[in-house]
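Project standup — Tuesday

K.O.: blocked on the structure for the chain from last sprint. Re-posting the sequence here as requested.
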Amino acid sequence: AENRKGLFEVADGGTLFLDEINAMDLNLQAKILKAIEEKRITRVGADGPIDVDVRILSAANKSPIQCVEDKVLREDLFYRIGSVQLRIPPLRERREDIEELTEYFIRMYNKKMGTNIRGSRTK
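H.V.: unblocked you, prediction finished:
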């Protein structure tokens, strides 16, 4: 285990995407916060800390503020990583996008699979 790189090491110099951060154990969230603040991690079994330079991008399947209130997302972690928030409404709230997305995926998969599907019936 001591020779395997963790996610922070793999992402060093780049971006680490943490999906559904609100579903992560609070102890893991504390470790993530520590790594972000100190810009270093300690690998299990390693002799010492390892410096990392990582940009964090995270997602939650609920409002991050609600997650903090529900105590499933650490408030200190939220304020550390929540400097810019982008809310993308679910597709059910933007039905006008369905046709354009359908056309995009048809074109993409036609090219990828060598097919000639011309469209779909949406009604």
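K.O.: great, moving the ticket to review. Strands lie at 15-18, 40-41, 50-51, 55-58. DSSP finds five helices and four strands in the chain.
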